[in-house]
Amino acid sequence: MEIVKPSLNWEEIVQMKRPVRTSDQTLCGNVMAEYKDSLIVLDGSVVKLHMYMIPKTKVDSFNGHHLHLKIPSDKLSVFDF
Fold this sequence. Notes:
Elements: H1 10-15, E1 19-21, E2 27-35, E3 38-44, E4 49-55, E5 59-62, E6 67-69
Parallel strand pairs: 1-6
Antiparallel strand pairs: 1-2, 2-3, 3-4, 5-6
């Protein structure tokens, strides 16, 4: 099991609704909530909406604006709910 970097301020990331990018630099939504050890990411509009529950262990880095994931965009559907 991977260890989540303790330096990330999850509360601030959620509060600021930070954008999320996959490892192939695809914008996949914004962080909307924190649920246990996962982040809820919302992408799209009412017409075409995707919600992802992404484990914090899949986060690669945060550059102060974007949260970067360790997964490519073609694997996001695994986390769709």
